[in-house]
Design brief:
This protein is α+β, with helices and mostly antiparallel strands and 339 residues long. The chain has helices spanning 23-31, 41-52, 78-85, 99-107, 123-126, 149-155, 191-214, 223-230, 253-262, 329-334, and strands spanning 12-13, 18-19, 33-38, 56-61, 66-68, 73-75, 90-91, 112-116, 133-137, 160-167, 177-184, 269-273, 276-287, 297-299, 305-309, 312-321, 327-328.
Length: 339
């Protein structure tokens, strides 16, 4: 299903592709008191774009520091590291319903809250600011609601995806749509590559959303009305589990190739080689009829390693054998003898 994207009726700066706001609206935009909530690197791009646009970030909410690595040293989230560098006020609540945290949040007197790659918010939090809470989601809603929208779009072989800003409400990813931006997915692009492009596209869309909200120039779109109007079959994006990562060599070349790139670089598609777990990050398709059993392994011991599947072969290009480092197939074959 294709969802019509919002069109800007206001003038656009062709060099920056951003809205040109009158001075009075720019002042209104920059005076908005905004709380930003996010944790991973994906969210940093959005926070950075808001800061560079002149937004007044009165607080940053992110995950508590967690022990990581061999030494279990306390590690800060990517968002916290950025916020510290920019000297922004930071809160790291263990529980979002904690009364002390709720009072700290109220004391910031935010006009608007923005959420990018953060935890599920309780209603007492997302309903607090007068302008509500805006979320940036990595799909063209209402398609791919859920925790892993980029992964599932690539796994399902979608040719297009995008980003959506919407207002939070009770049900996950179902709030009224504000703005959307689409872009194509390449035939061999991995989830990691789409992620890196998406975080920049999403950051720019988020800034435009805040500017439009400040100018009171947005008409909200009810997702249920979109689904009804388009008679859409909704695709969902649940969390990825280990069973979702298993390669079935009885599947088609296209389906396996999409699974591999959809799970790259994390968590990685899984199969077995010489009774050891093999994690696959990149592949190449060879569509050709054959009579070999699915899962049969072929290699010249130097340049290629391929598995037979339903309608051809999958060439493994980038892999990691259990207990070993990730490497290109040529490097792997140089030091490994197949059983």
């Amino acid at each position: 299903m294709e969802l019509a994207l919002r069109l800007y009726a206001k003038p656009i700066n062709e060099s920056t592709n951003q809205l040109i706001l009158p001075l009075s609206l720019r002042m209104q935009f920059q005076n908005l008191r905004i709380i930003f909530m996010g944790t991973p690197d994906f969210a940093v791009a959005s926070l950075d774009a808001l800061v560079k646009a002149g937004c007044h970030i009165v607080g940053v909410i992110t995950a508590p520091d967690k022990p990581a690595g061999r030494g279990m040293k306390l590690t800060e989230s990517a968002v916290k590291k950025y916020a510290v560098e920019k000297q922004l006020y930071i809160l790291q609540p263990e529980k979002l319903k904690n009364p002390e945290f709720i009072e700290q949040l109220r004391a910031l007197k935010a006009d608007l809250q923005i959420v990018v790659a953060f935890r599920m918010l309780p209603e007492i939090v997302w309903s607090m600011p007068p302008m509500g809470t805006v979320n940036l989601h990595g799909s063209l809603l209402p398609q791919y609601r859920g925790a892993a929208p980029i992964h599932w779009a690539v796994i399902n072989g979608e040719k297009e995806t995008g980003v959506t800003t919407f207002k939070l409400k009770h049900e996950i990813d179902t709030g009224d749509i504000l703005l959307q931006k689409s872009f194509p997915i390449g035939d061999d692009e991995t989830t990691g590559e789409v992620h890196d492009r998406m975080k920049e596209t999403g950051a720019a869309l988020l800034v435009e959303t805040v500017k439009e909200l400040a100018a009171d120039g947005l008409e909200k779109i009810d997702q249920s009305a979109v689904v009804s109007r388009e008679s859409a079959v909704l695709r969902h994006a649940p969390k990825i589990f280990t069973e979702d990562c298993q390669i079935n060599w009885n599947d088609t070349v296209d389906k396996i190739h999409n699974l591999i790139r959809g799970l790259s670089p994390f968590p990685g598609a899984l199969t077995v080689l010489d009774e050891k777990i093999l994690k696959v990050f990149r592949s190449k398709k060879e569509n050709i009829s054959h009579h070999h059993p699915a899962g049969s392994v072929f290699s010249d011991g130097k340049t290629f390693l391929k598995f037979a599947c339903k309608d051809g072969y999958i060439h493994i290009l980038d892999l990691q054998l259990g207990g070993k480092k990730r490497m290109l197939v040529e490097d792997f074959l140089r030091g490994y003898r197949l059983a």
